[in-house]
């Protein structure tokens, strides 16, 4: 019998990255039983939480590499972007580029010694481009697993590789190098880090270097669906100049306790409470509001959003955390919401405020949910669209602006309400956009398109006879990797 080949997965230190990497690890072990040993690598605290959440029979192995947050000027026990304030985020990125000796030791000494040969392949996040050099040194196949969409990543790469953007003024819209001339962006669609980047600042140093290194990887696996983003896939292939396989959506499709799906803290609410609350509402009536694992809107925006939600008189679940600029780990204060808001909306059964963290996948899977006001992080996008739920976009950072644009202009499943933390948002506008998406002809149309998108996604992951594009792409990628393995392993076909 052929010996199992070893695949090592290494996500960036952020919840939105660890969750899909864990899902990919589970997908490979489930789809190819007994064929591969799959190891997920992270820092000790992330591994500890992952260990609590992984069922003993998952087949996924966990390995930790040493990390001391104090060595990087980070608060104690900080190994994940979701527990650091925005101004310290850069430290997580910088710290992640210093893990080279630890990672190399794990691969070259520990795993290679235990297995008697180097791993078949290492699959890493694109913020960890430095791993390319280790893979080259050890003769191991290197691939990127891009946890973002193809279109968003193509714009993001182009924007970072063509600095500066400081010449762009607020009146202009501008062209993105590598894109068709008709494709325009506006200054407000650049995250602050990108807007002020000049190539020499700390963000530019980390991100440009990692992207450049990634471009000498062997392949990109993209957490998307070919039929969902045909233009995005074509642009990403052109801009990256690499083989790109779309294998998504890679997310836990089975509804599990979200608090246990990744390296995650205590849940803000018991999933059962949310689901019971949703049971009491008519189909497609509830708006779910969340800004992902690391973003918050400003205090003024929070007031306006609350007032707008109350004015719609529609049911909502809102994941609340301290506004932008406040300690992310602090208790949520009543003064951040209009006086009596939680009492009024809670007592009338119209609003459920969830502190900190919700069971998002369970919520989006419930038939009572009719819309998602989201920061358009790619996992949230996939989770919403795979359940046919249209979105209201409020992108906050990174490629979220381009995800929102693509969903509104290409797919017709999103209406953008606001951008970032600086925009003045009125409660009247909140009320108008929520009404537009939850009711009326436009909302109905969006729902139809979202349902057809959900079908495209379901078809792509079909694993039986008539294999979907994503299932076939993962087979094809692994077959390609196996062809590169040393001669002794040539019999190891999929
Ligand atoms: N998530 C969740 N509950 C929350 C917030 C986030 O389960 O209260 C999960 C969500 O389902 C998704 C991930 O965290 O899988 C967030 O990833 P995304 O790419 O949407 O945004 P990011 O947090 O990376 O900005």
Number of domains: 2
Net shape: globular
Query: What is the CATH superfamily label of the largest domain?
Result: Glycogen Phosphorylase B
Strand order of the largest sheet: 3-2-1-4-5-8-9
In DSSP terms (H or I, runs of 4 or more residues), the helix count works out at: 18
Bound molecules: uridine-5'-diphosphate
Which consecutive residue ranges, at least 5 long each, have pLDDT under 50? 254-266
Q: Summarize the biggest pleated sheet.
A: 7 strands, parallel
Mean pLDDT: 92
Helix content: 40-55%
Organism: Spirodela intermedia
Pfam family, one: UDPGT
EC number: 2.4.1.-
InterPro entries: UDP_glucos_trans, UDP_glycos_trans_CS
Q: Can you walk me through this structure?
A:
- By secondary structure, this protein is an alpha/beta fold.
- The protein has two domains: 5-253 and 463-492, 3-Layer(aba) Sandwich (Rossmann fold), CATH 3.40.50.2000; 271-456, Rossmann fold (3-Layer(aba) Sandwich).
- It is 41% helix and 14% strand.
- The chain has 18 helices and 15 strands.
- The protein has helices at residues 15-31, 44-53, 89-96, 100-115, 131-138, 150-161, 192-195, 202-214, 230-240, 271-279, 299-312, 341-347, 360-365, 378-385, 400-411, 427-438, 440-460, 469-483, and strands at 5-10, 36-42, 60-64, 121-124, 141-146, 173-175, 184-186, 219-222, 243-246, 286-290, 316-320, 351-355, 369-374, 391-393, 414-416.
- The strands form three sheets. The protein has a seven-stranded parallel sheet with strand order 3-2-1-4-5-8-9, with helices on both faces. Strands 12-11-10-13-14-15 form a six-stranded parallel sheet, with helices on both faces.
- Strand 4 (121-124), helix 5 and strand 5 (141-146) form a beta-alpha-beta unit.
- The chain is globular and about 65 Å long.
- The two termini are 13 Å apart.
- Mean pLDDT is 92; it is low at 254-266.
- The site of uridine-5'-diphosphate has 20 residues, from helix 1, helix 13 and helix 14.
């Amino acid at each position: 019998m052929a010996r199992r080949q070893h695949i090592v997965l290494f996500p960036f230190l952020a919840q939105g990255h660890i969750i899909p990497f864990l899902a990919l690890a589970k997908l490979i072990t489930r789809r190819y039983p007994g064929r591969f040993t799959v190891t997920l690598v992270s820092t000790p605290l992330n591994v500890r939480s992952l260990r609590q959440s992984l069922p003993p029979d998952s087949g996924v192995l966990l390995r930790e590499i040493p990390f001391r947050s104090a060595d990087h000027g980070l608060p104690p026990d900080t190994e994940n972007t979701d527990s650091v304030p925005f101004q310290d985020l850069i430290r997580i990125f910088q710290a992640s580029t210093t893990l080279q000796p630890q990672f190399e030791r794990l691969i070259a000494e520990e795993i290679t010694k235990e297995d008697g040969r180097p791993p078949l392949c290492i699959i890493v996040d694109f913020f960890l481009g430095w791993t390319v050099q280790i893979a080259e040194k050890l003769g191991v196949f290197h691939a990127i697993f891009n946890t973002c969409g193809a279109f968003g990543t193509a714009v993001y790469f182009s924007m970072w590789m063509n600095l500066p953007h400081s010449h762009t003024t607020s009146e202009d819209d501008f062209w993105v190098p590598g894109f068709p001339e008709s494709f325009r962006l506006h200054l407000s669609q650049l995250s602050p880090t990108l807007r002020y980047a000049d190539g020499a600042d700390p963000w530019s140093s980390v991100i440009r270097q990692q992207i450049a290194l990634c471009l000498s990887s062997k392949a990109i696996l993209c957490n998307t669906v070919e039929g969902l983003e045909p233009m995005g896939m074509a642009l990403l292939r052109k801009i990256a100049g690499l083989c790109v396989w779309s294998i998504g959506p890679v997310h836990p499709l089975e509804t599990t306790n979200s608090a246990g799906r990744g390296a995650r803290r205590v849940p803000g609410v018991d999933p059962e409470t949310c689901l019971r609350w949703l049971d009491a509402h008519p189909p497609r009536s509830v708006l779910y509001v969340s800004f992902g694992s690391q973003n918050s809107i400003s205090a003024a925006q929070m007031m306006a959003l609350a007032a707008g939600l109350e004015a719609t008189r529609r049911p909502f679940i809102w994941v609340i955390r301290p506004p932008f600029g406040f300690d992310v780990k602090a208790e949520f204060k009543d003064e951040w919401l209009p006086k009596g808001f939680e009492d009024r909306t809670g007592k009338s059964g119209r609003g459920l405020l969830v502190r900190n963290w919700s069971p998002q996948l369970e919520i989006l899977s419930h038939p009572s949910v009719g819309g998602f006001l989201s920061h358009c992080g790619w996992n949230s996008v996939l989770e919403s669209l795979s359940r046919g739920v249209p979105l209201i976009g409020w992108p906050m950072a990174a490629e979220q602006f381009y995800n929102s644009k693509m969903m509104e202009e290409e797919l017709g499943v999103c209406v953008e309400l606001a951008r970032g933390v600086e925009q003045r948002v009125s409660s009247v506008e909140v009320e108008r956009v929520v009404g537009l998406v939850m009711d009326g002809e436009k909302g109905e149309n969006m729902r139809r398109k979202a349902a057809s998108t959900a079908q495209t996604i379901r078809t792509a992951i079909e694993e039986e006879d008539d294999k979907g594009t994503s299932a076939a792409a993962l087979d094809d990628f692994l077959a390609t990797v196996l062809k590169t393995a040393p001669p002794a392993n040539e019999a190891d076909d999929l």
